[in-house]
Amino acid sequence: MKKSRLKEKITLDPIMTLLVLIVITIIASGFLSLLGVQVNYNTIANNVTLDYTESFAEVTSLFSLSGLKYIFTTTVANFVSFTPLSSLIIILIGIGVMEKSGFLKTSVTLLSKKLKRKTVTFILVFICLLSSVAGFLPYIIMIPLSALIFSYGRRNPYLGIISSFAALTAGTGVSFLFTSSDSELLKGTLLGSHIINPGYNLGTTSFVFIMLAAFILLAIAITVITENYIAPKLPKYEFPETEMEEEFTITNKELRGLVLAIIAGLLYLLFFVYCITPGLPLSGALLDHHQTFYIDKLFSADSFFSNGFVFVVTMLFVIVGFFYGIGAKTIKNNKDFCDDLGHSLDGIGKTLVLIFFASTFISVFKKTGIGEAITAALANLLTIKNLGVFPLIILLFVISMISTIFLPNSGFKWAILSGIAVPTLMDASISPEFTQVIFRFGESVTMGLTPLMAYYVIYLAFLEKYNQDKKPINLFKTLRYQLPYSIVTGIILFSLLIVWWIVGFPIGINGVVHV
């Protein structure tokens, strides 16, 4: 009895855990700065001459007066500008209309009533993996929707949240479609390769074969883990009695609303597809035409489509929800519609507090430079002489895994690693494209295990929202939910790398393993 009471006392709410992590980070930065921690590493200084320059990553102390000034003067601004905050609030407006009008319940029931549970899970995982082409934005769409989809199927919403987050994080580095992140990394890869071979070139399809294999294997593995390992361990979810009284049946009224919603949604989508299709009369208005690759035209920082993507999706949700409500007569007047707009925003006070502390933790950790210093120190391990091919593959894979925990930003990590990793592995006859694949696979293993990833707080917030235990959800327990996925993902992706290296399959169109 005493042990159980003690355990209950030391269970920290996620907000308190984040606060503790902030304090630990501040103290650690002061200690490391006092020790003069600074890591030197080589980067390519000139794109033309390809000369190396010595860069350094040092730890900045926030355990000082200037550090406290930084925290007090930037915390509010960081919270307000924290992308997951604004994106989540806007998306929830659209989801609220779809949910309250009945569109989601009707469509999910219609699509899944003849499907097995494992099939529904696989489809959800497949969509989450595929949506990685849109970067981090699917986190704020798929996690809330996954919880509702599982809830409508009379299953624990936790399963939807956990499995969708696992698929989204695993999909970080295994998209067989060329993403905007791939485009950013490709520039660093080519720059590193030109040190050894100035004429080396790569295309957008150079990774497609190995990525497609990884995609399929992970979709199956995540589904199996969810159904056979996670689901049996979760406590039974108690649905409200009103939801359990009678089975939901779809009548002509619901079907009429669904038809109207589909027509309206398709017309809306056709308009935006036309606006992002180059080469047609008056088309391409939402693209950034300064970019070379289409994916960059679509998702670059200056793209109209990218900047408005969240609003575009929200309006789609509002339109289908509204027209469903009109057809099914669940929206009878403007008051019903306005109430629906705010439905999903009810009770998100604690979510906002979680996001506030998460944004502060990420900002504080980033300012200290600890993540860059760790990544730079790991990068220097690649310069150890006389390492064989397999040790180099293993080392880069592990470096990518570890550095992702402390520095989730792919572009920033690769900027530190690529100048050393690409030429070093080329000297060992490992192609630059295969080197980039090793890096991307390593990221996928641990992206779901770091609260420093900005969208981790969305996963945490929705677990908290659907938590029926009297005790608060423990942050480290949410990490443990992801650990089985991470382990299996690591085994699958590393095995693929080894098999591909031994057999020598092309990793994509004009993409090779050996040079």
Write structural notes for this entry.
By secondary structure, the protein is an all-alpha fold. The chain has one domain. The protein is 67% helix and 3% strand. It is built from 23 helices and 2 strands. α9 (180-196) crosses α21 (432-446), α10 (208-233) packs antiparallel against α23 and α12 packs antiparallel against α15. The longest helix has 29 residues, at 475-503.
Present the secondary structure layout.
Blueprint: H1 2-9, H2 14-34, E1 38-44, E2 52-58, H3 65-80, H4 83-101, H5 103-112, H6 117-130, H7 138-152, H8 157-170, H9 180-196, H10 208-233, H11 241-244, H12 252-275, H13 294-299, H14 304-307, H15 309-328, H16 334-341, H17 349-368, H18 370-379, H19 389-406, H20 410-427, H21 432-446, H22 456-465, H23 475-503
Antiparallel strand pairs: 1-2
Helix pairs in contact: 2-17, 3-17, 4-7, 4-15, 4-16, 6-8, 6-10, 7-8, 8-10, 8-22, 8-23, 9-20, 9-21, 10-23, 12-15, 17-22, 18-19, 18-20, 19-20, 19-21, 20-21, 21-23
